[in-house]
Amino acid sequence: MSPDNSCKIVVVGGGTGGISVAARLCRGLKNAEVTVIEPSAKHYYQPLWTLVGGGAAKKEATVRDQSRVMPKGATWLQDSVATFDPDNDALKTIGGQDVRYDYLVVAPGIQLDWDKVKGLKGEVGKNGICSNYSYETVESTWENIRNFRGGKAVFTHPNTPIKCGGAPQKIMYLAADNFKRRRIDQKSEVIFGIASPSIFGVKKYADSLMEVIERYSIDAQFKENLVEVKADSKEAVFQNVETNKEKIIKYDMLHVTPPMSAPDFIKQSPLAAATGWVEVHKHTLQHSRFPNVFGLGDASNLPTSKTGAAIRKQAPVVAENIQALVEGKEMTASYDGYTSCPLVTGYGKLILAEFDYNSTPMETFPFDQSKERWTMYQLKKCLLPKFYWNGMLNGRA
After folding, report:
1. For residue 2, what pLDDT is reported?
2. 26 catalytic, yes or no?
């Protein structure tokens, strides 16, 4: 490394993790050449899609041009990675460019595997099937909720890691609240097919959520994974994750959370762990085998929930540790697994779950955050989007 700390840093991914880290590096390393590789022309604030699906926000508020969020001083390469060659500090893009680096940050996000559920692909937005999990389909959720007149409303949570683990149930609570307000709850049956054995991984918040489940009379069916959708007959096929026994549930409305995985170009690369995710140290976020490679966000194998709040704590660790290496110093920044899940439990109600690697609550406010609060709902709806666009993406929060 040259004495003026000049170096080439390549960031793969222009989502929350990539932009946050790039912004910090551009500010902290004045002579660094930072390149962000991102194919999409749009940048999305996905946490608000829950409220869009529930009719409480507009989807247009969740998107901006990628050029608007690109950090000052960074170069945007609008392309996708084809292959990595970490032994030679290089990668190749789909567009045919050979890109070399001194340091690499890998944050491409997560892949939605719609085709892993038989019969689902191409059906979202039709025949009562909806999903909050893409910008193109999120409005179909509100369309289904507001036009629901009774019957069975089925919500799913797959047997894979997903971004924002609480999101599948958040939209379910909004739907149940909507049905109650319109006085059709007595002729409605809300069913939650969840592949996990419990409603939430941290007992303190799980106990509160089970009270919400009871309040709405939701039929929570645990260890059930959606494997097939029969759109013509409006049937959802679930498979028990322990016994493999299948059962069919008829639906009038079906909200699907698709299975997810690391992007294919990550799975097929030398950077992947056996699980397919980018293999990094859980505290330093440095790659386990390639010391000039770092990873964060949804594509990493960090044993914590895949949320924007987790990335907010991961980004400064990556930036600080890269800066330390560039300056010839020892890495000292460490990530403790902090993540947060603002669990919307109805219109104007929210449980703010915050916890670490050990599933120990790490609460910000001086009150019991496992209790539903209107103020926390307003935090999610009004304050966090501003915090995201104006603080986090600028690398200042």
Report:
1. 45
2. no
Write phi, then psi, for 227 (nearest 5 degrees).
Answer: -120, -20
CA distances to 206, 232, 241 from 203, rounded to whole Å, are: 5, 40, 22
Catalytic residue among 7, 26, 130, 164: 164
Fill in the amino acid letter for 373.
Answer: R
| CATH fourth-level superfamily of 113-260 | FAD/NAD(P)-binding domain (3.50.50.60)
Burial class (CB in 10 A: 0-12, 13-18, 19+), 14: buried
Mean pLDDT for 348-369 is 98
Q: What is the pLDDT of residue 4?
A: 57
Quote the pTM value.
0.96
The tokens describing 300, both together, are 């990493």
Question: Beta-carbon neighbour count of residue 181 at 10 Å?
Answer: 11
What CATH topology corresponds to 7-110+262-332? FAD/NAD(P)-binding domain (3.50.50)
Q: What is residue 315's three-state secondary structure?
A: helix
- Ordered by start, the domain boundaries in the chain are 7-110+262-332, 113-260
Query: 284-289 long-range contacts, Cβ below 8 Å, gap at least 24?
Result: 284/317, 284/321, 284/331, 284/333, 284/334, 284/335, 285/314, 285/317, 285/318, 285/321, 285/335, 286/321, 286/331, 287/86, 289/86
Asked about 164 being catalytic, the answer comes back as: yes
Q: Which of 7, 26, 130, 341 is catalytic?
A: 341
Q: How many helices (H) and strands (E) does the chain have?
A: 10, 22
